[in-house]
């Protein structure tokens, strides 16, 4: 008896030593690191950040981190340290009311392609752990031709233990829209929820979405997207609700909304953010589902937003529902669609839904050279359902969006003397934006300007404004420092009401750089002549 106890003690000691060795080796091997974190799982709990001292890490690990940003757009090394499970904070406002009973069930469809295993597993496990089993009909995983073998093997092992998970694998790359349609074919619940594979779901995320659909079958609902930091994986709760919008080049942007009496009330959004949303299965099929003519990724949110709004839906963001979303620093070059493919997707959407306003899209993108797509299916859906026009959408949904109907000049604004262009990079979260010299002049997004009848030089909602001896972009208003005149003979841009003030480019002799600012119109310096050129 004493001998068997001794043997058991030695075995337990060896087991402890083996696990400790795994923990130690995990810092050099991602698979072992994942195994050890599944056993210990202490990092990142309650959404806390995982902070690394990079100088203390080996060169091998540092290179692994660098490679992970190139591959995924986030630090998969830190993600692996967190493991497959973690607890999350409660992000919902305290004023949110208790959820209703007798809500419809949902099928959650998660599409993925070569996602980091730990990120994908936290998406799945947070769904399983933090979703009411009474409301979760099933999780449908659509593997869009992932090449990583360990994802396939691990999911197969996992499915043996879990009853309400289905996995559909595609041998060929379908892209996001077609993958979602594949998942939809297998969904059995009356409500379907689509989610990207880089999410984390806190407790209580689902009920507020289902409540809206129970009230109105023709509503498409999105949670507030909290931010999962791509460097530390900190779960950052979004305090203020933003809605989705776009520019005429069909680039998504966040829009601030004014304070409301009830901050927990759902708010309509012109564009669905797209990372997570729920919709009635029958209504989605009624409006034609997702456009399967879209390739890979890019533009899907505009397809479902225009299709939804114009064909009878209301699209809302629900502040009492929060989901964490991992926003990559950049999309992996491996996953990033070719610029031409993305432009084809956007052109397809513009052609199908934007009616006479499609010309504004072409002006902002230079996509006229691309062969027009066949959108006869979407045209027939619009006819059959008597969908509204894009003009209706602008007048009733995206009412504050600037429609350039009063334009005198449009295109790039090139300085005639220095052969450079006026450029900018607009951040929707800021009220002021610097302008800059752009020697390339071919980036339409940064170099496209409108000169309007009322004397404004603008990019979308922002206007060029004098600020002492400098100029910057500010939200357009009625201020006198945003009003300019253009003389086609002298090519000078002057401030209205002060003919001595000209927009110019000047050489800073100390730094040997060129800057944009205010010049006296009467001096003899070069840099005051400008031309508008079409792209």
Automatic annotation (TrEMBL):
CC terms in the record's Gene Ontology section: Golgi membrane
Domain Ricin B lectin span(s) in chain numbering: 410-523
Pathway recorded for this protein: Protein modification; protein glycosylation
GO molecular function: carbohydrate binding; metal ion binding; polypeptide N-acetylgalactosaminyltransferase activity
Enzyme class, broadest EC rank: transferase
PROSITE patterns the UniProt entry points to: RICIN_B_LECTIN
Subcellular location: Golgi apparatus membrane
Entries under InterPro entries matching the protein: Glyco_trans_2-like, Nucleotide-diphossugar_trans, Ricin_B-like_lectins, Ricin_B_lectin
Keywords: Disulfide bond, Glycosyltransferase, Golgi apparatus, Lectin, Manganese, Metal-binding, Transferase
Pfam families: Glycos_transf_2, Ricin_B_lectin
This protein's record includes keyword Manganese: yes
EC number: 2.4.1.-
Membrane topology: Single-pass type II membrane protein
GO terms (BP aspect): protein O-linked glycosylation
Similarity-based family: Belongs to the glycosyltransferase 2 family. GalNAc-T subfamily.
Protein name: Polypeptide N-acetylgalactosaminyltransferase
Lineage: Eukaryota, Metazoa, Ecdysozoa, Arthropoda, Hexapoda
């Amino acid at each position: 008896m004493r001998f068997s106890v001794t043997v058991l003690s030695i075995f337990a000691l060896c087991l402890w030593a083996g696990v400790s060795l795994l923990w130690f080796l995990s810092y050099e091997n991602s698979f072992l690191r994942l195994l050890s974190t599944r056993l210990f799982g202490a990092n990142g709990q309650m959404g806390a950040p995982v902070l690394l001292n990079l100088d203390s890490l080996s060169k091998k690990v540092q290179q692994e981190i660098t490679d992970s940003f190139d591959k995924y757009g986030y630090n998969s090394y830190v993600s692996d340290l967190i493991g497959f499970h973690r607890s999350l904070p409660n992000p919902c406002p305290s004023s949110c009311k208790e959820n209703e009973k007798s809500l419809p069930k949902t099928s959650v469809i998660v599409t993925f392609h070569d996602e980091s295993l730990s990120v994908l597993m936290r998406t799945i496990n947070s769904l399983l752990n933090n979703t009411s089993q009474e409301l979760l009909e099933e999780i449908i995983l659509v593997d869009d031709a992932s090449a990583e073998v360990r994802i396939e093997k691990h999911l197969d092992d996992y499915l043996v233990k879990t009853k309400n998970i289905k996995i559909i694998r595609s041998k060929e790359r379908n892209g996001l829209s077609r993958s979602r349609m594949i998942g939809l074919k297998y969904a059995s619940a009356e409500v379907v929820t689509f989610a990207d594979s880089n999410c984390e779901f806190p407790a209580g995320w689902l009920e507020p979405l289902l409540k809206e659909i129970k009230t109105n079958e023709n509503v498409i609902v999105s949670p507030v997207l909290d931010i999962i930091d791509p460097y530390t994986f900190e779960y950052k709760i979004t305090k203020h609700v933003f809605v989705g919008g776009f520019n005429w080049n069909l680039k998504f942007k966040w829009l601030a909304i004014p304070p409301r009496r009830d901050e927990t009330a759902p708010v309509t959004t012109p564009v669905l953010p797209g990372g997570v949303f729920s919709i009635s299965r029958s209504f989605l099929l009624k409006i034609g589902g997702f456009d399967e003519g879209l390739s890979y990724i890019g533009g899907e949110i505009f397809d479902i937003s225009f299709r939804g709004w114009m064909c009878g839906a209301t699209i809302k963001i629900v502040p009492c529902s929060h989901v964490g979303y991992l926003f990559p620093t950049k999309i992996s070059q491996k996953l990033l669609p070719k610029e031409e493919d993305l432009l084809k997707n956007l052109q397809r959407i513009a052609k199908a839904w934007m009616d006479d306003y499609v010309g504004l899209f072409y002006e902002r993108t230079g996509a006229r050279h691309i062969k027009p797509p066949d959108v006869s299916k979407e045209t027939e859906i619009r006819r059959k359902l008597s969908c509204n026009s894009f003009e209706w959408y602008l007048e009733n949904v995206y009412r504050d969006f600037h429609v350039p109907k009063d334009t005198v000049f449009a295109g790039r604004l090139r300085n005639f003397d220095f052969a450079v262009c006026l450029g900018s990079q607009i951040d929707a979260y800021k009220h002021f934006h610097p302008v800059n010299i752009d020697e390339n002049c071919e980036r339409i997004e940064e170099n496209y300007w409108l000169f309007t009848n009322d004397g404004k030089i603008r990019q979308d909602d922002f206007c060029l404004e004098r600020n002492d001896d400098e100029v910057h972009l500010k939200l357009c208003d009625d201020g006198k420092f945003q009003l300019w005149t253009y003389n086609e003979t002298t090519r000078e841009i002057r401030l209205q009401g002060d003919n001595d003030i000209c927009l110019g480019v000047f050489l800073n002799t100390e730094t040997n750089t060129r800057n944009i600012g205010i010049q006296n119109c009467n001096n003899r310096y070069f840099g005051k002549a400008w031309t508008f050129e079409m792209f």
